[in-house]
Amino acid sequence: MARVGLTTQRLVRAGAELADEIGFEQVTASELARRFDVKVASLYSHVKNSQDLKTRISLFALEELADRAADAVAGRAGKDALVAFANVYRDYGREHPGRAAAARMRLDPETAAAGAGVRHAQMTRAILRGYDLAEPDATHAVRLLGSVFHGYAGLEVAGGFSHSAPDSQETWTRILDALDALLRNWPTEPTP
Amino acid sequence: MARVGLTTQRLVRAGAELADEIGFEQVTASELARRFDVKVASLYSHVKNSQDLKTRISLFALEELADRAADAVAGRAGKDALVAFANVYRDYGREHPGRAAAARMRLDPETAAAGAGVRHAQMTRAILRGYDLAEPDATHAVRLLGSVFHGYAGLEVAGGFSHSAPDSQETWTRILDALDALLRNWPTEPTP
DNA sequence: TGCATAAAGCTAAAGCGTTTAGGCAAACGG
DNA sequence: CCGTTTGCCTAAACGCTTTAGCTTTATGCA
């Protein structure tokens, strides 16, 4: 019985790759065990249960995404930063659809707070430094940006925009133009 | 063996209620059979399989949501219509979290096109008649609105904004103000 | 070096959800 | 009142999850 060298880390990374191949929903302890050529029960020494495995994959993806975002934003400001930041999210979703789906998985608030969720919020806030938004408008804007990135990725993977003109890339570019314009001219008072 | 009177319709409606109670992900043929006090195999005369059941619940929710939206938008225009429309989505998510999750389920494009997906797109487009958007900007705007509604609901149910100031309702109102301002002043050309 | 011990991976088994095949009986049409 | 449809059943196979307890491997300390 040669040891394969299972680790929580290795399981999570392999699970992330598996998610990209077959979809996050389809990632299962059994399938993962098959990949490592190991009996299913062996995984349970490294992972609490199936839910725990998925949660860890989600947190891994969030971390990886935050790393990329931090990298992209460094040394940029204003619209330049906004576009770079947004493109990280979009590119990640296209390059790693399974991990991106994992990142969108609903985590209970405490788990999310302990993970990279905070980094994402802080980076989004950092983007807004290039615009002139005081609280609480900055928070509103952070939430708007989160909703758009989150929502667009979800709709795009669902095939919502595919095969219909104008193409998704064009829309994405124009949405970023629009968001930039909006942030530069955020309405302080509702206009009835 | 008294007959319960199972129907695809009844199964789907009960499945939708079940989703609101225990979460869409947890809706299972077994659980549904338990509710009707019927053996699981009996469901398979009315539903092709478990996936088919979920798809039907999703389509049901989309239809219900489209009905409400159509109702809300009737006789309104401009920001008034935008706000009413957006609030339908948000209220539905809070009133029927399970159905809303079902509505966000990824369907294959042909299934979605055959269902109420088209109505949603058309209504969103109708909202934009109150603003001055020519193609392709109108399409970009439709996609932006879809992303925001979709994304906000997803983040809100994940508890993203709960228990942190400012409260979610305030943000929602201000986001709608912002979107209204953006639509009235949509940037025709990127501003570098 | 050699042994003790913790950890890795295994077998076995129970539980639950899905799905199909085939059977009985209730409802319904003529 | 009879025949047909069909609603619901039993039975069984299959796959994923999870726990319990065992064997073997690796590792570190004497």
TrEMBL record, chains A, B:
List the keywords (alphabetical): DNA-binding, Transcription, Transcription regulation
Instruction: Tell me yes or no: is NAD among this UniProt entry's keywords.
Output: no
Q: Name one Pfam family in it.
A: TetR_C_33
Can you tell me where the transmembrane regions are? none
Q: Which domain of life is it from?
A: Bacteria
A GO term for molecular function: DNA binding
**DNA-binding region located at which positions?**
28-47
HTH tetR-type domain location is 5-65
This one is known as TetR family transcriptional regulator
Q: Which organism is it from?
A: Streptomyces caeruleatus
Instruction: Tell me the classification of the organism that encodes this protein.
Output: Bacteria, Bacillati, Actinomycetota, Actinomycetes, Kitasatosporales
